Fold ABC transporter ATP-binding protein.
Amino acid sequence: MILKSLVVNLQRALHLVWHSSPRWTVVSLGLLLFQGFLPLGQLYLMKQLIDTLTLGVKSGFDASTWQTALIWIGGVGVLTLASDTCNALNNLTQTIQTQAISDRVHSLLHHKSIEVDLQFYENTDYYNTLHRAQEQAPYRPQMVLYSLLQVGQSSLSLLGILVLLTGLHWLVPLVLLLAILPGVAIRFKYTGKAYLRISSWTESERQADYLHTLVTTEPYAKEIRLFALGSLFHQWFQGLRTKIRQEKVHLATQQSAIDLITNGSATLAVCIASGITAYQMIQGAVTLGGFVMYYQAFQRGQGFLRDLLSNSIGLYENSLFLQDFYQFLDIQPLIVAPVAPKPLPAVWQQGICLENVSFNYAHSQRSVLKNINLKINAGEVIAIVGANGAGKTTLIKLLCRLYDPTEGTISIDGVDLRHYAPTDIQRQISVLFQDYIQYQLTVQENIWLGNIEAPPSTEAIWDAARAAGADPTIERLPQGLDTRLGNWFEQGEELSIGQWQKIALARAFMRDAQLVILDEPTSALDPQAEAEVFDRFRQLVRGRTAIVISHRLSTIKMVDRILVLSNGELVECGSHDRLMEQNGLYARLFNTQAQHYQV
C-alpha cells in the first residue's frame, strides 16, 4: 500500500514538473546522463597522470614523458571544466524550473480554492489541509525531480565505480554497500514518523500565523492598541512557536544521531578499503596511480551511494508531504452542474419557491433553517428581518446555491435549482453581503468587479456609483475612478466604513441581474444617506426581484412583503401594516426601535 502510494505520488509530481517546464526538464535529463559518466573519466585520467609522473620520477623525464603527462593534464582540465559547466547549467535549470513549478502549483491551488464549495471554507480540516499544501507544494515537486535526477546520476556513476572496484577485490564493493545500508534503514523508518510529527503541528502553526496577523495588520491595529492586547498576543505567539521549535529541535537531534551512525560506518569502511588497497600495492598488484585511483573511487563511490540512498529517502519524504497537496487537489465540490443543465430563463415569470426547506451546516447538528415554505413572485421586493442568528444570511446562501438544502427544494420558475448550472444561477444574482470586501484596487475596478463580463465602461460605473450615492466621494478623490483605495499599496486612499459600503453597494448595482440581494446594505450609512439609497433602490429594481435584509425596520416599510424569521423558522409574513396589526414579533421589534425616536 505504501509503495503504491509512493509510486502514484511520484507519477503525479513528475507530471506536474513536466507540464510546468517540459523543455528545461529535457535539459535536466541530458545533463544527468552526461554528468553520470564524468567521474569515471576523471578517475581514469588521474590514474594515467600519476602513473606517467611516477614513471618519470623513476626513469627520468624525457620529451615523450612530458608530452604524455601534458595530454593527461589537459584531459583532466577539460573534464573538470565540463563538470563545472554542467554544475552551472544545473543551477540555472533548477532556478528556472523552481519558478515555473511554483507558479504552476499556485495556479492549481487557486483553481481548486475557487472550485470548492463554500462549506469547505467553514471547516477546520480544510484549512489544515490547505495550510500544509501551501507550505509544501511550491517546492516539493521540484525536489522530487531533483532527487530523481540525482538518483539516476548517482546510479550511473556508482555502477561504473562498483565495476572498477571489483577489479581490485570483490570485498571492496561489498564493504561499500554494508557501510551505508544500516543508517539508511533507520532513516526510512524515521522519515515516516517525522512526517506524522510535522503534520501534527499544523493547527499550532495556523494559530501562530493568526496571532502574527493580529499583531501586524491594519484591521486589528486600533483595538489592539486601545485594549493593550499586543503584548498578550505576542506572548501567546511566542508560546506556540517555542513549543514548535522544541519539537523541531528534538527531530533535528534524532536526525543528527542517525547521521552520526551513518558517517561512522562510512569512516570504518574507508579504513577497511584503504587497508585492502595498500596491501595490494605492497604485493605489487597495484601501482601508485592505481592506489590513488582506487582510493578516490572508493571515496566517490561512497558519496554516490550515500547520495543515491539519501535521495531515495528524499523521494519517500517528498511523496509523503505531497500527499497533503494532492489531498487538497482531490477535494471534489458537492455542488456541481447537472450533466444536462436546463436553461435558466432570461426573464423569470413565476419567481422563487421554497418547499419544506431545512438546513444545517455539515459541522453542526443544529438546524439553522426549519421547514421553510415560501413563494417569492417575480418582480416582488421583500424584506427579511429577525434577530441575530435567526437564519437570514443562511437563507440567502441557499438562494444563491452556495449550499443545497439539507431537506426540501428551492425552485426558479418551477424548476429545482439543482437542475440548473450553478454558474447560470449566480450570473443572474447580484449580492451585497454584510461582510463585503474592501478590495485594495482602484475605484473603477472595485465597482466593475460586480459584472466582469461587461466592458469596464466609465458611464456604467458612474451610473452604479450614483445609484449607491458614492459619486460625491469619488469626485473628491485625487484621481477619481483611477484612485487606488486602501492603504496596502502606494498612493492608496483610505475611505471611511460608510464610504466603503457605498462602493460595495455600487458594485452590486453594476450587474443587470434578475435577483438583487442586499444584506444590511446601509448599516454604516448615516440616516440621510440611507434614506436616499432606499429611495433610489425601488427605481433600480423595478421589474426585478429583490430581497433586503435589515435590522433598521424603519427603512423597509416600502417593500411589498416582510418575512420574519425566528430560530430558523418563518413565523410571520405580510406587509408592514398587516404585521403591525397582528401585533406579533415584527410589531414588537418595530416598536422597540421606534420608542427610541419618540420624544
